[in-house]
Backbone:
């Protein structure tokens, strides 16, 4: 199937285009508006979030449009004037926001979009779907990185989510500090380091009615080592872990790269395997554990002799928070602040920016949200959080591999800046408070 270079227009909800049609008809489509992406609250128990998806959104924004097939479908319910408008659609507005990898909190103005109402409204679903997914994954991944306390994590959740979501999830987890992914498309698309060796199926392949489990396992390990070298990782829990470790060292020798344990009482097994490896002379062989891990399980393994972790379902599903909770709301019309007053769904009016204040030690103290272009006077260490992303429809920030590397650094430094209690996994209040300066 061939697609136009300008695609993605149908990644939207119908009501955005019916609102557009009504606005074009009554003459309000061209009014200058400001929309804001923010979360009213963090997912239950979370103390911070990690912004992710910015680079993917900017890429989608530059190619967002409607081809002939799209317009043919839309003409079934839209009037000719609206279809004509969409035929020539190109976003020409401005976007400011938090750089990818920044931490955010409830009420943080993560993204500000300023353009005509027509341009802003058709981006709603595209923008929310990217940021809600990627940020949920990155936020969960950052908690796992903190729990791992410097030990590498591998993202391996592709089989637990939609095939395209898996690629975005791998990027988001890497952005938050994971060492790599099992997903080859994420490697091709985003340069995420790719890792992986074998599954239980390869060991079982060498079994047979006349082959003992241990003999079949040893044959499988020898075949893997012959193909991938002694630096490979051998999966030792298909049958009996103790026998598996013995077979692994027999097949690869004392220079075996790693063994992986995917089931059982991981902490107990890790201690037993470490002792056995050392006794067999494989003192440098690493221990990798996997099997339904989340940040709490990783933290519980901190005292075990585990060298790295493989994480699947929990990271690609946001570890209990599959969406970040972002909303996208109109906050300004022709320079005048507007806001919702619906019960439990209020929004603060006016386009906003943010700055953060720090102790001399670098610990984050407060986030100050203020009217755009009107920062308050602040004494002591501080920095602006909001940065330009798009001007006149053109991206004005770095994208691609360099941006991903910078985002990884940003997450790491952001986590270091949190007060110590902000890194707790237990339920609690946000790591820092937000002070809102009214636009009035």
Residues:
């Amino acid at each position: 199937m061939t697609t136009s270079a300008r695609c993605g227009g149908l990644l939207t909800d119908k009501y955005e285009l019916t609102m557009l049609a009504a606005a074009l008809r009554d003459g309000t489509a061209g009014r200058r508006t400001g929309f804001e992406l923010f979360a009213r609250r963090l997912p239950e128990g979370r103390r911070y979030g990690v912004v992710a998806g910015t680079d993917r959104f900017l890429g989608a924004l530059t190619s967002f449009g409607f081809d002939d097939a799209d317009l043919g479908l839309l003409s079934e319910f839209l009037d000719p004037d609206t279809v004509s408008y969409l035929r020539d659609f190109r976003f020409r507005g401005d976007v400011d926001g938090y750089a990818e990898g920044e931490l955010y909190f409830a009420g943080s103005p993560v993204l500000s979009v300023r353009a005509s109402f027509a341009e802003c409204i058709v981006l709603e679903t595209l923008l929310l779907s990217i940021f809600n997914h990627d940020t949920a994954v990155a936020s969960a991944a950052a908690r796992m990185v903190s729990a791992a306390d410097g030990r590498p994590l591998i993202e391996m959740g592709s089989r637990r989510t939609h095939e395209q979501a898996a690629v975005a999830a791998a990027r988001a987890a890497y952005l938050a500090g994971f060492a790599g992914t099992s997903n080859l498309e994420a490697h091709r698309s985003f340069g995420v380091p790719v890792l992986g060796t074998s599954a239980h199926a390869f060991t079982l392949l060498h079994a047979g009615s006349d082959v003992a489990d241990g003999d079949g396992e040893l044959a499988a390990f020898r075949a893997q080592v012959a193909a991938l070298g002694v630096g490979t990782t051998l999966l030792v829990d298909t049958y009996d872990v103790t026998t598996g470790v013995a077979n692994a060292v027999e097949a690869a020798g004392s220079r075996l790269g790693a063994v992986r344990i995917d089931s059982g009482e991981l902490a107990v097994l890790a201690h037993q395997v470490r002792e056995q490896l050392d006794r067999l002379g494989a003192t440098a062989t690493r221990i990798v554990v996997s099997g339904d891990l989340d940040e709490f399980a990783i933290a519980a393994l901190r005292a075990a002799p585990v060298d790295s972790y493989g994480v699947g379902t929990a990271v690609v599903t946001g570890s209990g928070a599959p969406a970040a909770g972002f909303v996208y709301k109109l906050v300004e019309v022709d320079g005048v602040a507007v806001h919702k007053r619906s019960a439990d769904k209020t929004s603060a009016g006016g386009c906003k920016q943010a700055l953060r204040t720090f102790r001399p030690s670098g610990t984050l103290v407060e986030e100050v949200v203020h009217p755009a272009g009107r920062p308050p006077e602040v004494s002591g260490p501080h920095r602006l959080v909001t940065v330009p992303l798009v001007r006149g429809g053109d991206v004005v920030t770095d994208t691609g591999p360099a941006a991903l590397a910078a985002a990884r650094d940003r997450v790491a430094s952001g986590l270091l800046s949190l007060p110590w209690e902000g890194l707790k996994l237990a339920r609690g209040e946000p790591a820092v408070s937000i002070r809102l300066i009214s636009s009035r």
Observations:
- The CA atoms of residues 182 and 419 lie 33 Å apart.
- The first helix runs from residue 14 to 26.
